[in-house]
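Bench notes, afternoon.
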Amino acid sequence: PDAIAALLAGSGRLWRIAGAGLRFPPVRAVAWPAYRWVARNRHRMPGGTAACSLPQETRDRLYGPSAG
């Protein structure tokens, strides 16, 4: 959450507001457990399995040939 807040702080005006909100202590207190839950369960989310992955050709086109 701290890294995301920093990333948002360097983005557009609306995203900067969201980043500032993530730095607000009550929001931050909730963001950490939410982040840990997402990290533990990311394999269950869309794109987390081979069946949901994009073909290599599409990944190369969207993200460049170095995308793994």
